[in-house]
């Protein structure tokens, strides 16, 4: 059996690390990796392969830094070339990036089975490029691996039970990753404040809108007066802040370069609370027992909000500070008793399913 994983962005490296480790235990399985090149910096790509033991990509398409159309189109072309040569039994795509969509379309048009890891998530915000990628990828996937009940329900509501596909509620591979790597956490080499809150910020809806971006930054500046805000700065956000001449020398936010996953686990384990617009971090906050403020107007991870582990703040300064105070008081008596996102064996469930269903 031959399986090709298509990956290209940071969260996909983390998900693929889980799957590739499981694949390594299966005899007669040839696992190949296409890296589209979407994230290419050393600290956005290489470090994950090295630290997480992800096999070196077999194909690197080097597609990055383009608009959505050109990026997805060139990926599609490059992936199709590889698939025509390799003709795998299945193409595995992860999450919701342009690499996900390009991989799914390339495979489906060649009548190669498509499996989507992290299927069924919805923000119901069609302005998000990720939402478009998710919906289209799900629709042409043969195997939909859902991380939770809500994702399964979303697919059912959209009529997927009438489509020729299989929905599997397998739990979240990100939970597998957090359990596996939690004892391997690495302190970042930069000096850190003793007590801090952790923030990440990179969603287009926040970075591409100057008012939202500056409102969030202004809230972080104010929070920094109480707790230092450590913010590993995504290249996109850095570019945006530079383009509006943000004065990095005159801020009390503790900006650092993006870190590898093991350093990120350390930062999450040791912070007070987390503020983020990242999908992955919302769940990791829960995995590491930290309250989370989501700097968005909606989230795909509703179960976290319903359980009281996550508060949606949007981008309004006053509301962010309010949510911060609320989360801070909650963190004095943390209670994360609910078990969400499966049993930490999603990667194993996915692998077994594929082995049993593809000959
Ligand atoms: N992450 C990391 N280093 C960083 C920032 C994030 O390793 O400097 C990890 C984080 O722990 C999570 C994943 O990257 O596992 C989330 O990726 P991102 O926020 O880029 O994408 P999203 O989850 O929003 O799709």
Quickly list its features.
359 residues; alpha/beta; seven-stranded parallel sheet; 15 helices; globular; binds uridine-5'-diphosphate
What report would you give on this structure?
This protein is α/β, with parallel strands linked by helices and 359 residues long. The protein is 45% helix and 15% strand. The chain contains 15 helices and 13 strands. The longest helix is centred in the first third of the chain and has 19 residues. The radius of gyration is 20 Å and the shape is globular. The site of uridine-5'-diphosphate (UDP) has 17 residues, from α1, α11 and α12. Uridine-5'-diphosphate binds next to α1, α11 and α12.
What is the number of helices?
15
- The radius of gyration over CA amounts to 20 Å
Q: Work out the helicity level.
A: 40-55%
Poorly predicted sequence stretches spanning 5 or more consecutive residues: none
Beta content comes to 15-25%
Please summarize the sheet with the most strands: 7 strands, parallel
Q: How many individual β-strands?
A: 13
Mean pLDDT: 97
Give a list of the ligands: uridine-5'-diphosphate
Order of helices and strands: EHEHEHEHEHEHEHEHHEHEHEHEHEHH
3D shape: globular
Write the layout of secondary structure elements.
Elements: E1 2-7, H1 10-23, E2 30-35, H2 42-52, E3 59-60, H3 68-86, E4 90-94, H4 98-109, E5 113-117, H5 129-139, E6 143-146, H6 149-157, E7 166-169, H7 173-181, E8 196-200, H8 204-207, H9 210-223, E9 228-232, H10 235-243, E10 254-256, H11 261-270, E11 274-276, H12 279-287, E12 292-294, H13 302-306, E13 310-312, H14 317-330, H15 346-357
Parallel strand pairs: 1-2, 1-4, 2-3, 4-5, 5-6, 6-7, 8-9, 8-11, 9-10, 11-12, 12-13
The chain binds uridine-5'-diphosphate.
């Amino acid at each position: 059996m031959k399986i090709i994983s298509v990956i290209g962005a940071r969260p996909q490296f983390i998900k693929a690390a889980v799957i590739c480790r499981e694949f390594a235990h299966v005899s007669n399985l040839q696992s190949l990796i296409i890296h589209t090149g979407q994230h290419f910096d050393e600290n956005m790509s290489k470090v994950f392969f090295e630290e997480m033991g992800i096999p070196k990509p077999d194909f690197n398409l080097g597609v990055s830094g383009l608009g959505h159309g050109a990026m997805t189109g060139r990926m599609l072309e490059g992936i199709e070339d590889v698939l025509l040569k390799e003709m795998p039994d299945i193409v595995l795509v992860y999450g919701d990036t342009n690499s996900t969509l390009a991989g799914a379309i390339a495979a489906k048009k060649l009548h190669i089975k498509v499996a989507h890891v992290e299927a069924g998530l919805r923000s119901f915000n069609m302005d998000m490029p990720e939402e478009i990628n998710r919906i289209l990828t799900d629709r042409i996937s043969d195997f939909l691996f859902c991380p939770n009940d809500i994702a399964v329900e979303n697919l059912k509501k959209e009529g997927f039970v009438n489509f020729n596909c299989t929905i599997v509620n397998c739990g979240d591979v990100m939970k597998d990753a957090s359990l596996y790597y939690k004892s391997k956490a690495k302190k970042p080499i930069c000096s850190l404040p003793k007590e801090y809150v952790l923030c990440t910020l990179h969603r287009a809806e926040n970075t591409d809108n100057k008012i939202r971006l500056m409102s969030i930054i202004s809230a972080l500046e104010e929070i920094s007066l109480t707790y230092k805000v450590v913010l590993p700065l995504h290249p996109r956000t850095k570019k945006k802040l530079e383009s509006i001449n943000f004065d990095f020398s005159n801020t009390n936010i503790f900006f650092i370069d993006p870190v590898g996953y093991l350093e990120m686990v350390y930062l999450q384990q040791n912070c007070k609370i987390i503020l983020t617009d990242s999908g992955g971090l919302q769940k990791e906050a829960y995995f590491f027992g930290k309250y989370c403020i989501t700097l968005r107007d909606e989230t795909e991870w509703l179960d976290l909000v319903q359980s009281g582990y996550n508060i949606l703040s949007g981008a309004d300064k006053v509301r962010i500070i309010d949510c911060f105070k609320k989360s801070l008081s909650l963190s004095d008596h943390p209670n994360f008793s609910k078990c969400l996102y499966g049993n930490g064996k999603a990667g194993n469930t996915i692998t077994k399913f594929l082995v049993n269903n593809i000959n």
